[in-house]
Design goal:
Helices cover 26% and strands 34% of the residues. It is α/β, with parallel strands linked by helices and 179 residues long. Helix 2 links the parallel strand 4 and strand 5.
Length: 179
C-alpha cells in the first residue's frame, strides 16, 4: 500500500453563507453557518486516506474545543495521528470562510499550526524516510516548508507542495543537481 506523510495544517473551518459580502461597517444577515474540520494539510490527508493510502499526519492542534473534532475527523477517516500534538495554551487553527456572490473569501488564523517548526517536523523523519511521497502546504511556517523540502531531496522522497496560500519561498527548494 502507498505510504503518504502529510506535514501541515489542520483547522476548524467556520463557514458563513450570505447573499452578499457586507460593505465596510455594514451588518447583514447570513443564510447559514456551519463548522467543518479542514486545513489544507488535513484535507490532503483525509482525501489520500479515503483513496486507500496509509496516511500519517504531522501537525499540531490547540487545547481548545476544536481539538477533539479535528482529531476525530482524522480517526474516522483512517488517518494515522501518531505525529499530531496538542499545543498547550494555544488555539487550534481556524479558517473564517464567507460564501457570497458566487465565490469565497477566507481568513486563516494559523494558531497551533505555527508550532509545526523544523524541530517539530524532524520528529517525523523516520516515517518521512519510509514514505512514497510527502505532501506539504504553506499554512505552516515557511522555514518548515524549506526544511522538509531539503530533507525530502536528501532522502530521495518525492515532495508535493500545494503553494497556498501563495507566498515566495527560498529559491533553493526543488533544485536538484543532475550528474
Amino acid at each position: 500500500m502507498v505510504k503518504i506523510t502529510v506535514i501541515g495544517s489542520s483547522s476548524m473551518d467556520l463557514v458563513v453563507t450570505a447573499p452578499k459580502r457586507p460593505n465596510k461597517g455594514e451588518t447583514i444577515l447570513g443564510e447559514s453557518f456551519k463548522t467543518v474540520p479542514g486545513g489544507k494539510g488535513a484535507n490532503q490527508a483525509v482525501a489520500a486516506a479515503r483513496l486507500g493510502a496509509d496516511v500519517y499526519m504531522v501537525g499540531c492542534v490547540g487545547d481548545d474545543a476544536f481539538e477533539k473534532t479535528i482529531l476525530d475527523n482524522f480517526k474516522s477517516n483512517n488517518v494515522i495521528t501518531t505525529y499530531m500534538e496538542q499545543v498547550k495554551d494555544t488555539e487550534s487553527g481556524t479558517a473564517h470562510i464567507t460564501l457570497a456572490d458566487g465565490d469565497n473569501s477566507i481568513i486563516v488564523v494559523k494558531g497551533a499550526n505555527d508550532y509545526i517548526t523544523p524541530d517539530y517536523a524532524a520528529k517525523a523523519l523516520d516515517i518521512i524516510s519510509e514514505s512514497d511521497i510527502v505532501l506539504i502546504q504553506q499554512e505552516i511556517p515557511e522555514e518548515t516548508v524549506e526544511y522538509i523540502s531539503k530533507k525530502c531531496l536528501q532522502l530521495g522522497v518525492p515532495l508535493l507542495l500545494n503553494p497556498a496560500p501563495a507566498s515566495s519561498l527560498c529559491c533553493c527548494i526543488g533544485r536538484r543537481k543532475e550528474f
